[in-house]
Amino acid sequence: xxxxxxxxxxxxxxxxxxxxxxxxxxxxxxxxxxxxxxxxxxxxxxxxxxxxxxxxxxxxxxxxxxxxxxxxxxxxxxxxxxxxxxxxxxxxxxxxxxxxxxxxxxxxxxxxxxxxxxxxxxxxxxxxxxxxxxxxxxxxxxxxxxxxxxxxxxxxxxxxxxxxxxxxxxxxxxxxxxxxxxxxxxxxxxxxxxxxxxxxxxxxxxxxxxxxxxxxxxxxxxxxxxxxxxxxxxxxxxxxxxxxxxxxxxxxxxxxxxxxxxxxxxxxxxxxxxxxxxxxxxxxxxxxxxxxxxxxxxxxxxxxxxxxxxxxxxxxxxxxxxxxxxxxxxxxxxxxxxxxxxxxxxxxxxxxxxxxxxxxxxxxxxxxxxxxxxxxxxxxxxxxxxxxxxxxxxxxxxxxxxxxxxxxxxxxxxxxxxxxxxxxxxxxxxxxxxxxxxxxxxxxxxxxxxxxxxxxxxxxxxxxxxxxxxxxxxxxxxxxxxxxxxxxxxxxxxxxxxxxxxxxxxxxxxxxxxxxxxxxxxxxxxxxxxxxxxxxxxxxxxxxxxxxxxxxxxxxxxxxxxxxxxxxxxxxxxxxxxxxxxxxxxxxxxxxxxxxxxxxxxxxxxxxxxxxxxxxxxxxxxxxxxxxxxxxxxxxxxxxxxxxxxxxxxxxxxxxxxxxxxxxxxxxxxxxxxxxxxxxxxxxxxxxxxxxxxxxxxxxxxxxxxxxxxx
Length: 711
Prior knowledge:
The protein contains 26 helices and nine strands. The protein is α/β, with parallel strands linked by helices. Strands 6-5-4-3-2-1-7-8-9 form a nine-stranded mixed β-sheet, sandwiched between helices. It is elongated. The termini are far apart.
């Protein structure tokens, strides 16, 4: 270990000395001879006149940096490194990239390895990630150079030079795909941070294509930046197409040349010399001029890299000081991007985004004997293990709402572990867990454990525990089928409210399923719920679902009954909104719009607004079956996640496409609450109505009353 550190320090010092020597050589030997030609070339240079080209060069350099870490992020995702978020890896990439200048590339590698090691990755997998990044970077520059060479014929580049470049680069490319040579190269690259080439994984063709594609995209913008910079300097007038092809070639070729001397920090001087040789004919056949332009362009690249590195450091500081706020900003951005992708997909453009609302039924087991649900009668499923669940979550990558369902979720001993995996891989903004409240002590202990996990893994995420509340006193016990359930419900709520005092991120709610058994007593239920001291009270219509094995049970109230009983609930909700903050008013307003939507769906038996099931929403059953929603359930299985299956493959399968087309054609309709909220977000009139209700709750109440009076 000591000898390795000494070697690294010696390499850094040697690199710095070589850079200093090169700078002295340039200043004392080269520049005196170059200066007259450079000054003559730039005598008429006017930066104001060329400001558009300078701006395009800067913009291209920034775009190249925006795409540069994407390949690294994909590699880390493929390696399934634990406890690692893509945004953290991106910030580290920008900061360590500056180490290629000060003090040198070895320190850049060490910085990335240290970052991965601090997040639980061993030295073997850390060094494997670094090796893969460099191997595919070499592949991408070879492909970039080969693609550019055929277009350089008009640049008066000697045919022998073009052929030699094509042959040498082609040979390098073939060698990189030879397993033995690749392993040997990996051994060299992995020796520095420490590792075993035997752990180097074989990447799928799809992942390789994505990694190489991102690298080539970055190199393309980097070449475009060099092209605009030469144009701004007055080079290549009238020969723009030829100069662009040479610029796109010069960038990867100069990087390959500098790779031979990785000990030189940043390859400064060597890369610009190669670029100057290749582009000198566009600068009055003067190597002095073309090399000077290339050197000045290096300042542009360093500035763009430095800007991203500085931004990364600022973001890192903000994340340390304000983790909750930063998570909310990131979540809002991701949610907006997913909604845009979903809308484009409905228009026939692109692929569906990862679901923003993921429901996971973790078990079929349940101690309740509810009249509204017969899942307790169904045979148990072979439930996914914690390791299998982690693989699925890692593949999904992100969701906004994570809903845990059952059966009774708190019957699974590993429920806190499942929530921990969701925080680590899905990074949700909201985690929602319903319960029958039959195990007050267990619910309290598990909720406390989950809150500790959330504080550690996803600070700022909200955890909502929602016990079921279907009636007051004996009515609740009768509907739930368990004597004493109501008293245990009250015990559970008191325990949860005590936890809430110490954990403000905990939201305690109750939910009522409105069925034929309690529809006539909803006023009493609503009034009692108002005295429970909970954060939210939600009710939804009882549904006959294949998921609940209650088809044909006749539990759903008729639309007229539902409309009548909802008037009181809406008035109470509107009254409560007056004392709420804006976010709470918006949430309540969405529910009010949902309640009206349910009535119309039940009356008209159609999709009143377009449904995004299987696009924005997904449901995973306890055995890994993937559904578009809980209503279509077993009859619309899109595929399997886990146990040899793949969420991504199922999400994009032919069966999934058929199911989505069926939903888009309106071949089903339902009042499912989780799905309806996503649909409202995507339906402009409904969303605007919700916002108007949130901002002017009194006006909404007045408008509704006038409409009813007119009727």
